[in-house]
Write a structure and sequence with these properties.
The protein is α/β, with parallel strands linked by helices. The chain folds into three domains: about 35 residues; about 150 residues, Periplasmic binding protein-like II (D-Maltodextrin-Binding Protein, domain 2, 3-Layer(aba) Sandwich); about 60 residues, Alpha-Beta Plaits (2-Layer Sandwich). About 40% of the residues lie in helices and about 20% in strands. The two termini are about 20 Å apart. The structure holds prephenic acid (PRE).
Length: about 290
């Protein structure tokens, strides 16, 4: 049995618990106040008409701001997780949606990512591959789909399903704040019906049909900041998925690819997302001066 604490310590504990109760009540009041702002935002944004309330560029900026101002013994994982639940819940309140997940590489990591980034209020629906996820999102009003960027390229170029007008597009890459030991570290692309004016275009994703490929092409793409992140064979050539800065024009990519491969290159944009943002390892650990010792 633990020793009874002294009357002085009991009194101090009472005062500290009053402080905790005050802070909890203030946080709760602020969350209720936040929900009232969202009620007003729904009218301004006309979310119901567009189908999805998700604004990935705004969310990326908010998550970066949280990481920038974070300090003290509270783990960043906790602060990030709390705000992911707050933002996802308010997104859901504006327009309910489900998360369709590709579980072909295992359900556990995808479920962890879905729960971390979108909370527990949002329904989670597993699918056998990226193509099935994209089809489910295409058939929905405002759902999102998640899969790994390297999802089953051996089973074909899934990004081809994103090339038509009105087809789903990549709208985010998660986690917004990448770091070692992230609690939901699996890199995922988020797809939704096109967000029109709401998409963030720091990184643009392009599907390229080329007649042939040369290994040196990757080197020639590098100065553009462009990178091949997927490739799959087609009957008459190759389909490659390229990530490049939104400031680089499609015409420049086309010229470079044509020169690098010595053949034609047909390009179609299949989405965009906020720039990847990685925290240095030291920034993610709680303040060592405050960390409990063994
Ligand atoms: O800023 C918006 O457009 C919102 O809908 C608000 C909010 C939030 O809760 O902060 C919710 C969903 C969006 O993805 C981004 C932010």
């Amino acid at each position: 049995m633990s020793e009874p604490i002294s009357p002085t310590a009991t009194a101090q504990l009472g005062v500290l618990r009053q402080e905790i109760d005050r802070i909890d009540a203030e946080m709760h009041t602020l969350l209720i106040e936040r929900s009232q702002i969202i009620d007003r935002l729904i009218t301004v944004k006309s979310t119901q008409a567009s189908g999805s309330a998700f604004r990935p560029g705004r969310e990326a900026a908010m998550m970066r701001a949280i990481a920038a101002r974070h300090h003290g013994s509270l783990p960043l994982d906790t602060a990030e997780g709390i705000w992911r639940v707050i933002i996802a819940t308010f997104t859901f309140l504006q327009a309910p949606f489900s998360v369709h997940a590709d579980v072909s590489s295992g359900d556990g990591p995808m479920r962890d990512s879905a729960r971390f980034h979108f909370g527990f209020t949002v329904p989670y629906l597993p699918h056998p591959g990226a193509a099935a996820v994209i089809a489910a999102v295409a058939a929905s009003a405002g759902d999102v789909g998640i899969f790994r960027p390297d999802s089953g390229t051996s089973s074909g170029p899934w990004w081809e399903a994103l090339t038509g007008p009105g087809t789903p597009k990549i709208i985010a890459r998660l986690p917004f704040i990448e770091r070692r030991d992230h609690p939901a570290a699996t890199p995922i692309f988020v797809v939704s019906k096109p967000l029109a004016d709401a998409a963030v275009r720091e990184t643009v994703l392009v599907a390229a049909h080329v007649e042939r490929w040369r290994r040196s092409a990757q080197t020639q793409l590098a100065p553009l900041g462009a990178e091949v992140i997927g490739s799959a064979g087609l009957r008459d050539g190759l389909s490659v998925l390229i990530a490049m800065p939104g400031t680089t024009g499609l015409d420049v990519l086309q010229e470079t690819l044509a020169r690098a491969t010595g053949g034609r290159a047909d390009l179609t944009e299949v989405g965009s997302h906020a720039d990847r943002f990685r925290l240095p390892d030291a920034a993610t650990r709680p303040d060592p001066a405050l960390a409990p010792t063994a």
